Amino acid sequence: MITQVLIGILSGAAILTAGILIGHYGISQSSSGAPPSWLKDVAKDVDESLIEKFLSEVDNIQIQENLRELTKVPHMATTAGDEQTVQFMLKRWQDPETGLDQAWREEYMVYLSFPDPKNPNKVTVVSPSDTVLHTAREKEKSYTPDQDDPEVVQPYAAYSPAGHAKGKLVYANQGKPSDYQLLNQTIDLRGTVAITRYGGAGRAAKAINAAPYGVLGVLVYTDPLDINDGLMSDIDETYPHSWYLPPSGVERGSFNTHYGDLLTPYLAAKEETYRIPAENITGIPNIPIQPVGFEDAYTLICDVKLDIFNHEEVKNSSNVMGVIRGSVEPDRYVIYGNHRDSWVHGAIDPSSGTSVMLELTRVLGSLVQQGKWRPRRSMIFGSWGAEEFGLIGSAEYTEQYFAKLSERTVAYVNVDIAVFANATLRASGMPSVQNILFAAAKQVDAPGLDSTSVYDNWVRYANRTSPALGIIPRVGYLSGAGSDYAAFVHYLGITSMDISYTYDRTKTNARIYPAYHTAYDTFDYASRFIDPGFVSHQAIARTAGNVLIRLADSLVLPLNCSDYAEILEDYLGTAMTLYEHQLRARNISMEPLKRAVASFRSAAAHLDRVIRTSDLANETPLKVRRINDQLMLLDRAFLDPLAFPNKHAYRHVIWASSDAGKPTFPGLADAFATAESSGQSRHWDKVHYHLSVLSQAIEGAAHTLVDVI
């Protein structure tokens, strides 16, 4: 028996050796003795000369004309103007000379909320006998023909319920839970109408937080101190004389806390998809809420009456999709997205981003159509629909293609508002993308500055000290759901980033560009006050396009796990300072979390070493693929579908949203804040639970970075 086993082993070894030799010579030589043609393509790295060519061909005038076309008419989701932009995108992406390999529309039937044009929402000041003393504007004041377009939607709060509320007006600051709690200590809030200012709490939260106190309705306005540096006069201070918001300007918005279609949670909203009853929707206000301008907020006193006639309906909304197929790894996707719909003309939000995306695809499409280039990996472009109603288009896309995107997506690049202003770059993303953002920014000239790169300009405006790298630009985190990266980050765990140009925060206190979501966000506003000459748009197109090409063409994905380890160590340090003493007193140990972070650091250093010391261009393609899969799938390891049961579609335990406002692990921070406030043992148990979730997720992620067992 032993002899037979030995003979079998030796025979098997001989066959295996012969197979390797045959395979080696079969691969390394063709019939002519030369290596096969595909071998060079498989080993090819990013072409720096191609990036230089791309940078030189991005045209600011093309971007300007894109924006002019996109902002001719208002294009709120599902309107005729929206369909006009769909057709424009399809025409450009299907152009035989500058288009993509393929472009198409993806349609969803989604639940949206609209005002009634025949019965406008009203806000009035009334006397005790219901005599109307003042009526708030139903439309913003006109300064250009743009505001007179009949398709300009009345300012309203999407997903506010219809209803009528009358009561004494009370000022509730930002509508945070603490604001109502403090107010209720001195005033009986039952039967009142609250007026709040934007900021501090989410739009919907201002009404959701008010309802338990018996508040009947809520108004929300943009405070001139928060948006205009205190300026209020349209005679010579605000638009049309500057970028500041005119007194009648009103910020529209979606007043819900969840993202995606509200009737089809975790399902793509196709025509025959199951829908929950509308009365089972959560995360929307249950009392009327309406936005007003600071002009009206200034005059509202005494008894206020709200008459809200919003209605909801299921309507067809489209994403426009395009693809450039990869030549070597077509089953690996780099996705670039920007939403298309706006509240009115939307020159900055979102058409600055759309105009940049169209220029970027024009340059890349031309290279493809001329046969001069094809990316290693596939590039997918998404023009998302109905984002303004709650990131609907991108969320439905991730739900429909959940399995494919989870398995194959390398990264997602989001450019929503490309240019808030023209001072400096602003970027947020997973820590692993820091390296590629820096590399791209160093190759782009900063607009209006001689011999200065976007990187050098950026580090002057926003920087931090890295233990490993010294003083570097500060990259933010994607910890909320502010744009279409949300579903990619929180639901799918895909490495993502968001890129824009922004303003000098030492010169203004504006929380965002002042015309945001108003009828004044027009081509005139963008071209005169945001980016004259469109050179900041050009810088963003160059930077984002550079990032896109590097992600698609690099032999080894330019993602850095050690940068991730550094941020996990920062988060751990903050958590130790804030929580360790009290947790130790309750016999809850943070040692497992410390060990997990240390393990991740060690594993990241190991993978960095493997990449640095390997001649991957001459290694088997399977080794390169294995390393790239480790890099690509890292953020998937941080997903836990049970970690946040009360937060729809939040599964990433490092970057989920947090109410605690602490720069550390979100689930732990929120659980600790709740436990500290209540003192209840069940809440301290939840802290322990989140420590375990974190520790095991980070430890699990570390194991994905080490050698295969």
Automatic annotation (TrEMBL):
<dbReference type="InterPro" id="IPR007365">
    <property type="entry name" value="TFR-like_dimer_dom"/>
</dbReference>
<dbReference type="InterPro" id="IPR003137">
    <property type="entry name" value="PA_domain"/>
</dbReference>
<feature type="domain" description="Transferrin receptor-like dimerisation">
    <location>
        <begin position="588"/>
        <end position="705"/>
    </location>
</feature>
<dbReference type="GO" id="GO:0008237">
    <property type="term" value="F:metallopeptidase activity"/>
</dbReference>
<protein>
    <recommendedName>
        <fullName>Aminopeptidase NAALADL1</fullName>
    </recommendedName>
</protein>
<feature type="transmembrane region" description="Helical">
    <location>
        <begin position="7"/>
        <end position="27"/>
    </location>
</feature>
<keyword id="KW-1015">Disulfide bond</keyword>
<keyword id="KW-0645">Protease</keyword>
<feature type="domain" description="Peptidase M28">
    <location>
        <begin position="319"/>
        <end position="527"/>
    </location>
</feature>
<keyword id="KW-0735">Signal-anchor</keyword>
<dbReference type="InterPro" id="IPR007484">
    <property type="entry name" value="Peptidase_M28"/>
</dbReference>
<keyword id="KW-0812">Transmembrane</keyword>
<comment type="similarity">
    <text>Belongs to the peptidase M28 family. M28B subfamily.</text>
</comment>
<dbReference type="Pfam" id="PF04253">
    <property type="entry name" value="TFR_dimer"/>
</dbReference>
<comment type="subunit">
    <text>Homodimer.</text>
</comment>
<dbReference type="InterPro" id="IPR036757">
    <property type="entry name" value="TFR-like_dimer_dom_sf"/>
</dbReference>
<keyword id="KW-1133">Transmembrane helix</keyword>
<dbReference type="InterPro" id="IPR046450">
    <property type="entry name" value="PA_dom_sf"/>
</dbReference>
<dbReference type="Pfam" id="PF02225">
    <property type="entry name" value="PA"/>
</dbReference>
<keyword id="KW-0482">Metalloprotease</keyword>
<dbReference type="GO" id="GO:0016324">
    <property type="term" value="C:apical plasma membrane"/>
</dbReference>
<keyword id="KW-1003">Cell membrane</keyword>
<keyword id="KW-0378">Hydrolase</keyword>
<comment type="function">
    <text>Aminopeptidase with broad substrate specificity. Has lower activity with substrates that have Asp or Glu in the P2' position, or Pro in the P3' position. Lacks activity with substrates that have both Pro in the P3' position and Asp or Glu in the P2' position. Lacks carboxypeptidase activity. Lacks dipeptidyl-peptidase IV type activity.</text>
</comment>
<dbReference type="InterPro" id="IPR039373">
    <property type="entry name" value="Peptidase_M28B"/>
</dbReference>
<keyword id="KW-0472">Membrane</keyword>
<keyword id="KW-0479">Metal-binding</keyword>
<dbReference type="Pfam" id="PF04389">
    <property type="entry name" value="Peptidase_M28"/>
</dbReference>
<keyword id="KW-0031">Aminopeptidase</keyword>
<dbReference type="GO" id="GO:0006508">
    <property type="term" value="P:proteolysis"/>
</dbReference>
<feature type="domain" description="PA">
    <location>
        <begin position="166"/>
        <end position="254"/>
    </location>
</feature>
<keyword id="KW-0106">Calcium</keyword>
<dbReference type="GO" id="GO:0004180">
    <property type="term" value="F:carboxypeptidase activity"/>
</dbReference>
<dbReference type="GO" id="GO:0046872">
    <property type="term" value="F:metal ion binding"/>
</dbReference>
<keyword id="KW-0325">Glycoprotein</keyword>
<dbReference type="GO" id="GO:0004177">
    <property type="term" value="F:aminopeptidase activity"/>
</dbReference>
<keyword id="KW-0862">Zinc</keyword>
